[in-house]
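Hi team, as promised in this morning's meeting, here are the two structures we talked about. I've kept the exact order from the run log so nobody has to guess. The first one is mostly here for context; it's the second one we should focus on when we meet again. Sequence first, then the predicted structure tokens.
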Amino acid sequence: MADAGKNRDHQDEESHGESDGSGRGSDGKNVTEPVCGPGDPVPLGLSSNNKKKLVLHIDLNNTILVSDAVTGQGTIAALEYFLTTVTWGQMSKQGKWEWLSDSPSLLPPCEGAVNYHSQFGRVPGFTSAAGRRFRGILDEHLDILRWPEGLKGDKELAVKGEDGRLYQWILPSFFQLLKDLVEEGRDFAILFRSFGTDLPRVLSAVSRALTQGAHPLFPDLPDLKLSVNVTPGKIRCSKKGVVLSRAEDRVSSRDGERGLYQYLSSVHGLGGFQDHFDWWASNTCSILGGKPLWVDPFDQHVQHIFIDDNIRQNDEDTIVRPMVFLDPDGTETRTACTSELYDISLVQNDLLRAISDPGYFTQRVRICQENYERNLQYNTG
């Protein structure tokens, strides 16, 4: 992910502070340590209402974009980088890298497997060297990403790759998600959440597609009647709390985290916030420095879902911090483990599938809805 691309690679470049270590949350009152293992599960799915409002928090780079302005990655480099995070092997006793699978996967194929990026970091030209066995997968997905021949390139919606060919900048599966949600009659909002610098351009491009019909593959998007707030917001974190700002809006966890949850639950249309990369880096790219996501399992009207390719079930190396309210209408939260909310409120994006399957995002959202309603009773054992 571009966010993942700014993961371990950037830690040496960023100044590192110390995490709080106080056992307090962003408002100074909440439990920060993720609690895994035996215990009460998140009491989700209290209502059989399958028409909850959906607030979808969607990462940009290597989630709906295959490029990254911060790292300077074009389409090919970004896709090659993603492949290094989903291809697995291990070091032999002789100190030689051995592949354990010929197929990319989000999760390790067996115990002891590590992904290539974790072992070697960022490696330019991956599929031309150590990862040459995955070259066919790269080429296949680049072909799918090609801007249709015969169509004039759009200055915002098409991007020239390192090979001189035109590629789609925003994945068609994202626009298909919007169409599917409207067709289902869903009440929903989209919030782009990125550490990077692509947010203003994405908001502008999506606004043109939705209001002017600028996307040649989706000329009927204006029929969806969706609005776009093109003013980027910011989310900044510190030991004192979380502050969200956008234009004249400003909400702080110092006034209680419930207010932040209510603000994010009340948004309409599409918009976005730049999250706080330096805070994540200062917390060693762990869950405690991640993009904040408030989850109220007692809310029968709103479900929040976060889609990001750098969500991982290793809380020492993940990008979203899910904070779960402990009581109905309460203010105290606890930081939940990623595994608790995986495919419920947290979706680890599979970029390859997001490219190849137009219905990918719609399917992932539906899986989260279904799992939310099932209440995770199997966790009680």
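And here is the second protein, the one for discussion:
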Amino acid sequence: MENGQKQWRFQGNKELNPASAISLRGVIDLVIGNLSTDDPRPTIPLGNGDPSQFACFKTSTIAEDAIVDALHSAKYNGYEPTVGVLSARRAIADYLNRDLTYKLSADDIYLTSGCTQAIEVALAVIGRPGANILLPRPGFTFYESRAGYGHLQVRHFNLLPDKGWEADLDAVEALVNDNTVAMVIINPGNPCGSVYSSDHLKRHSLCAIGSIGSIVPVLTLGSKSKRWLVPGWRLDWLVTTDPNGIFKKSRIVESITGYLNISTDPATFIQGAVPQILENTKDDFFSKMIVTLREAADKCYDGIKEVPCLTIPKKPEGSMFVMLAKEESVIIVPAGMAFGMKNWLQITFACEISALEEGLRRIKALYQRHVKKA
């Protein structure tokens, strides 16, 4: 008791606030909080890459039917191993093996509740006191949020806009020391929308899954969310590419299983639908999606070039974002807050073409209104 007041022994975890502040969701929440309540126009969401809210980005009927079949089978109503349903892990290994020289098995696949959980697992198992990790700047903010929360030191290497967002190779070499435990490669780039060439990947050991797995062990994060346009289904995966058994010798594999044993699992019926989804989805589903995204990317690129105060160094090639809202009710991401890139913006074009065009018109109107005042 203090001055007659009862003193509680618990309080909020202060470390969560700075971690959340640099997360993409935290930044978008801040932007949404500044929207004008007096503007009758619908808000244009050009900040968060969630295509599922737009009719032009609808998942395949194959995927929907697979979910229904998994539910009706009554095989996936109970608990499953924390690493994931075996049939789903085997199907993912077979799916990835189509493009690999080193062949994966089900034991190399770990199912996670979204790619964010895969990031949590990866950073948790490699972390140790004094360790550091190399992150691209700009890059997907959740890596930095989780690294900071887990007391993993972050060292940034820059992606160069005038070189198509390739990594600064000299900086990468200079950052590595005896405490460096990993380097993060995001390809296709998020938030830049760039795609590394195979030559660029090889020249500085930026490795896609399987490409140089014989040289270094690789943890790869994969996703069904965006490829099938269902981020709310929360099923993604973590893959160990490790033909030399380094992860096993260093007990990383054991740590992954241990972390998943104290964490949450993806819904079992979603896992049960994976084999049918991967096996039966036709190429035309992806082709149509790529056509829609390419049209939106062109519209976005051309629209931004019409605003004199904005520049876009490279047209997006392999994602739903470009790098570059209070008055116009347009949600875009200030990259200074989210990605450590002052005077840059992130815009997603994974939306209806009409919404994208309207959002770009409003951005242009904002510029024209303020340039006159200047």
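Starting points for discussion:
The chain is about 40% helix and 15% strand.
The first strand starts at residue 44 and ends at 45.
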